[in-house]
Amino acid sequence: MLSNLNTVSMKQHRIAELAKRSPELAFTSLSHLIDLEWLLEAFRRTRKDGAVGVDGQTAADYEANLIPNLQSLLIRIHSGTYHAPPVRRVQIPKPGSSETRPIGIPSFEDKLLQRAVLMLLEPIYEQDFYDCSYGFRPGRSTHQAIDATWKHTMDVKGGFVLEVDLRKFFDTLDHGHLRTFLQQRVRDGVVFRLIGKWLNAGVLESGNVSYPDQGSPQGGCISPLLANAYLHYVMDEWFHHEVLPRMRARAYLVRYADDAVMIFELESDARRVMAVLGQRCSKFGLTIHPEKTRLLDFRRPLLSQDKSRETHESSTFDLLGFTHYWSRSRSGQRVVKRKTMSSRMTRSIQAIDSWCQAHRHDRLDVQHAALCLKVRGHDAYYGITGNGESLKDFRFLVNRTWRRWLSRRHRKRKLDWDKFNRLLDRFPLPPLRVVHSIFKQREAKV
């Protein structure tokens, strides 16, 4: 397996070098790189514990006859006889909304082949994508997008923030425009036909198969790259080549998949972009959400020696689970801070509440171990510099929820706070922890 990894890495490195050296080049010969070793590496990188697709085949089933299965797949790829089965679609609730989000579940072999094609395309597009794009890219994360937003707002002293919300982006992605975008970089017939088969594979839902002419089903590993490629041309390239040269002052874009904010130093620049953004998106079949897309004045509030006479707090905006707002640092200076969005906090506590209710009769040590994992998991995402108060609030709410459900284990014996605090001495929740520190990042860069 190590030799497979080395061989695949060398091929990817050569693709990346050629893509970087020739930014206008459209690759016409890529599929020949997909051989048995490539598919073995794709199999290694494919999740084995995911839900099964329409054929009901698990990863263990496929692995039981792995080499013959991969050899058969290889023949079908290069002969053009591979058939993409319909994607099994399930609806999951959107957090904090009555709406649902459709998730597509491909068959395991389809997941494997999508991974193999992703391994071909990623080295190309990683040379093209801009630094402002953070979603679903190797070596990039939500916290990097959040930190970039913090840095840009501090650079322009808050400025004017344009929150961009694309209505049902993954459902309305236009296949024709996507093919046009992809052909600028990929013209290999085998690869292009495979992508076309996935776009037209159909969707199985409630026993019926439909064939939508737009959209990219969320769930397959190729979908995020296709989405990034689409928005690279629609938004990122437009912003850098057409918007920035026309700005009178500094402006920045931060995008994580279809979540984006634009930060402007001048209000006039922000309003000019907002006036044309809807037209730009509609040109490529996308719709700006009229209520969630908004321009806000995020300029730094003026300081006053008399706190009672300070100017009112500026507006706040949300991005990737955090609310950005102006506050005071320990030295008394105005700084942009981030805290857990109230809706995310509510959602997390509701999940804890449901768990405590279902497991209130479990042993205390079992409950404690599970709650510790949940608290550490919360910290792993929300434990950023400046969010200490929200983390403390979360622990208090977890304790309150736990005590409430422990009190309901018996009809007569209630667990008051004194008894519960003694219990916490024996079963304490993990201490507050800042996992993502901007100070550590600065030290690492130095």
H and E string: HHHHEEHHEHHHEEHEEHEEEEHHHHH
Class from helix and strand fractions: alpha+beta
Work out the helicity level.
Answer: 40-55%
User: Which runs of at least 5 residues are low in confidence (pLDDT < 50)?
Assistant: 308-313, 442-446
**How many angstroms does the end-to-end distance come to?**
37 Å
Number of helices: 16
Strand order of the largest sheet: 2-1-4-5
List keywords for this structure.
446 residues, alpha+beta, four-stranded mixed sheet, four-stranded antiparallel sheet, 16 helices, 11 strands, 13% strand
3D architecture notes:
With 446 residues, the protein is of the alpha+beta class. It has helices spanning 2-21, 36-45, 59-63, 66-79, 108-128, 142-155, 169-172, 175-183, 189-199, 222-243, 267-282, 342-358, 364-382, 388-407, 417-426, 438-445, and strands at 87-93, 100-105, 160-165, 203-205, 208-210, 251-256, 259-264, 294-297, 317-319, 322-328, 334-340. The strands form 3 sheets. Strands 2-1-4-5 form a 4-stranded mixed beta sheet, with no helix packed on it. A 4-stranded antiparallel beta sheet has the order 6-7-3-8, with helices on both faces. Strand 6 (251-256) and strand 7 form a beta hairpin. Helix 1 runs parallel beside helix 5, helix 2 crosses helix 5 and helix 8 packs across helix 10. The longest helix is centred in the middle third of the chain and has 22 residues, at 222-243. The radius of gyration is 25 Å and the shape is globular. The two termini are 37 Å apart.
